[in-house]
Amino acid sequence: MDSHTESPAHSSGSPAHGSVDTRAVHAGRDDLTDLGLHAPPLDLSTTYPSRDAAAEAARLDAFTEGKDDGGPPVYARAANTTVRRFEQALAELEGATAAVAFASGMAALSAVLLARVSAGRPHVVAVRPLYGTSDHLLDSGLLGNTTTFASAKEAPSALTGATGLVVVETPANPTLSEVGIQELADACAPVPVLVDNTFATPALQRPLAHGAAMTLHSATKYLGGHGDVMGGVVACSEEFARVLRQVRFVTGGVLHPLAGYQLHRGLTTLPVRMRAQSTTAAELARRLSGHPGVSRVRYPGLGGAPRPADQMAGGGAMVAFEVAGDAPGLIGAVRLITPAVSLGSVDSLIQHPASISHHIMDAGSRADAGIPENLIRLSVGLEDVEDLWADLDQALDAVS
Ligand SMILES: *Cc1c(COP(=O)(O)O)cnc(C)c1O
């Protein structure tokens, strides 16, 4: 897929049978009533019996080529009927023709990189900042890739004949900086652009509608939404999905069926959670920017700052801020907010990127990515805004 015009990644218009809210509840479940079921079946089979060896051989050939016709999977490393439901639902929400799920967000990114390296396009242009381990994976070249880090503006001039992928996060982890997807995709065409959509989720932003060839999620975060399941997923064209399934089949980074079940259930409340958590995050960002213990707040559109037009609904549920006092100390001073890495859960989580989420990068790379050492990242949950503010306010006073 060297051109994202070869095979459409983006399915037509809005989801079938209604809005994103409606489809979040019903996607991947449309056959349940006819099956006489309410909850999707949890399929824990590792193998799928058949008396017809020749037919099984033909099915395996198809799986080896990355095709999945929805029939019996033969073996659980090829496919799983519960995980398929999550993939189908996520593809629908992203407006994609296909989605392929993995054991984690990093397994998903690894599969994308292996797919591009094996296609003879090992060079990646990556727009910083990115999640720390993604930055490290790209920078280390562990999977045979090479990477040029560039700003969104410089990205087109960093492309070479060997470039197989442009990687961007918007809003980015951890600074919440935004990139105009359509402008980047147009300027980098025909090289496919991957948007890590973990922070916005398809409830607020659908990158394929803005020219991205694929979106990637750490499903561990908002898609699961409750801090109790790990997963990753890529939404893209069926053509690229076949390559990703081939990679998944041979490398084995499959999503566990129980995780697939939990992620599929998580999608049902995703739009409601994102709206509620975003409303609280916007209010906390506003209050933080008036706090004397805070030197700078990062939140999309805060104070009327310019944003990419018509790209993301609202500012999302993540807030980042620089503290004037002891940044790591703040993590130890919160009492209600959970002092932990990760994000996207129903409870609020706070962490110090230089110590945890972006610790794997060296200080020079963090500086290049524009991640200050005194930056704090807050994932806003479903608690009451006044309770969260009281906790932040007392913690900031304690370290100022
Ligand atoms: C957490 C995260 C990842 C990695 O996902 P895992 O599920 O932890 O492997 C990738 N991108 C972003 C933006 C993340 O926040």
UniProtKB/TrEMBL annotation:
InterPro entries with a match to the protein in the record: Cys/Met-Metab_PyrdxlP-dep_enz (IPR000277), PyrdxlP-dep_Trfase (IPR015424), PyrdxlP-dep_Trfase_major (IPR015421), PyrdxlP-dep_Trfase_small (IPR015422)
SUPFAM superfamilies per the UniProt record, alphabetical: PLP-dependent transferases
Cofactor: pyridoxal 5'-phosphate
Region (Disordered): 1-21
GO molecular function: transferase activity
Record keywords: Pyridoxal phosphate, Transferase
Pfam families: Cys_Met_Meta_PP
Family: Belongs to the trans-sulfuration enzymes family.
PANTHER family: CYSTATHIONINE GAMMA-LYASE-RELATED, TRANS-SULFURATION ENZYME FAMILY MEMBER
Protein name: PLP-dependent transferase
